[in-house]
Sequence to fold (124 residues):
Amino acid sequence: MDQKLKEKLSAQCKWLRLLYMVFFLIVAVIVKFIMWFLTAFQFLIVLFTDHPNKVLLEFSEGLSIYIAQIFRFLTYNTDSKPFPFTSWPTGASIAEVKPVSVENVQSCVAPKKRGRKPKGTNNA
Fold:
């Protein structure tokens, strides 16, 4: 097996991220059912009272942001792990999420080059 490939496959940070990704995929499925319930319940409240429940509005906004944070983490758009590794999201939370830096991904995906020059380059 090629040494570079062996190094890439044995990078611990990749496998740890996979564990986090599986965890958050399971959480996303659970949250999806909670969101269905909240949607139906809020509809019934509006149907009978003509206005939404403020507490449910605030909670569902946080839940919507949480779902977005989960999918941003799962798709490598951020390295920030969502709740329970951070605080519960509020309306301002979405702006606080830091995007994934290319350097972070490269440091985990590929071993650092050790001063070798690409073939065909001269010092002149």
